[in-house]
Amino acid sequence: MKLFAKTTLAIVGISLASMAFAADPLANTTWQTYDEGKPKGVVKITESNGVLTGKLISTVSEKGQKHVGMTIISGLKADGNGKYSGGKITDPEKNKTYKLTANLKGNSLDLKGHLGPFSRSQTWKKK
Length: 127
Known about the structure:
The protein is mainly beta.
């Protein structure tokens, strides 16, 4: 009986540990960004210690090329059920940073940047 209890505890422990380290659905994903319905750039989202970061990896405009490699999303954390908060997003062209909330729905990522009482939304598509 002791062997059964030890085996069961070991399996439960391994299962819980693997759930704790399960990757976030946004981790290591690439997104096509849109502004006013037109493709703008591509962002790669990575995760480290439960915090998501997004870097601009390409852009469609020559003017935007100077921003490639820039971190535009930082500090974003999962709230559960595809909802994220606590992050910041930077508009590279205006060099302004906004509070960020996001909602993952399948292959769409709805982002909302907040500045005081004002907000602006965008929907990105998974590549």
